[in-house]
Design a protein that fits this description.
- By secondary structure, the chain is of the alpha+beta class.
- It has three domains: about 20-95, Immunoglobulin-like (Sandwich); about 110-185, no CATH class; about 185-255, no CATH class.
- Helix content is about 45%, strand content about 20%.
- Helix 8 (about 200-205) crosses helix 11 (about 235-255).
- The longest helix is centred in the C-terminal third of the chain and has 24 residues, at about 235-255.
- The chain is extended and about 105 Å long.
- The relative contact order is 0.09.
């Protein structure tokens, strides 16, 4: 009887385990996250999401999944009866700000194109006032640069920015990063409020979509963190309406093909 009881428990436990499949998305842009790690705490087994954000893993009722991806907050998901018997997508959110996704794009991909950009570049108006200025040997010998920025040339009490420094500030990767960072700092409150400005409830109210179709539409929109931070609430709603019109048109066109 003891052996039969143990076998019965093992069979019951085996019956409760299943191959579970779900998807992982960015919680703001609603784009699928590839390469996210899914760890079953109970079985000590790992799975990873594919390019569509989908993963498969063996689990049982009351197991716990830990879903992680670099730069995102860790998600702990206890498997209750609802998750075990049904299906639900998981959403990850950035740890801090959108600066983690910064992409630097060169002004011109070719060297010849870059040279043309430099030659045709119009310098700021304040350089016009210095066109007739010529430095003496003494001025060249005594020229000094500001210790803080390294780009202010001091000549006998006057200051001017070197054209080379101007070009560096305009095109260098470091300067672009600094400009983007300063812009994001000015939007600090909006970064914190982004989840209230754009979410499934707002989109559903504007479009009437629900469930899987709602998620498909939000994936279609492909709004970036940067755009959502800069746009006002009304601008976001207008973008949603415009994208919904295009979404419906593309959907009808696809069905007629």
């Amino acid at each position: 009887m003891l052996i039969i009881g143990i076998l019965g428990c093992l069979i019951a436990a085996q019956a409760q385990q299943k191959r579970y499949s779900a998807r992982v998305f960015d919680g703001i842009t609603y784009q699928p996250l590839s390469g996210a790690s899914v760890y079953n705490v109970n079985t000590k087994k790992f799975a990873f999401t594919d390019k569509n954000g989908r993963f498969e893993i063996n689990l049982s009722l009351n197991d716990t999944l830990i879903i992680t991806k670099s730069t995102y907050r860790q998600l702990v998901a206890p498997i209750d009866k609802k998750l075990f018997s049904g299906y639900e997508d998981f959403f990850l959110y950035y740890k801090a700000t959108m600066l983690k996704e910064v992409t630097i794009i060169g002004i011109n991909p070719s060297y010849e194109g870059f040279k043309k950009d430099i030659v045709t570049l119009k310098l700021p108006d304040y350089y016009k006032r210095a066109e007739e200025v010529h430095l003496s040997e003494w001025q060249r010998a005594n020229a000094s640069y500001d210790e803080k920025g390294g780009n202010i040339l001091s000549l006998g009490g006057t200051v001017t920015m070197s054209p080379i420094s101007f070009l560096y500030d305009k095109y260098s990767r470091r300067s672009k990063m600094n400009r983007l960072y300063n812009e994001m700092v000015s939007y600090e409150d909006e970064v914190e409020r982004i989840q209230q400005k754009y979410n499934r409830e707002i989109v559903s109210e504007l479009t009437g979509l629900e469930g899987e179709e709602l998620l498909n539409f939000m994936m279609y929109c492909r709004f970036s963190y940067y755009d959502l931070v800069r746009w006002s609430d009304e601008q976001i709603k207008e973008k949603i309406r415009t994208n919904y019109f295009n979404y419906q048109y593309d959907k009808i066109s696809h069905e007629q093909e």
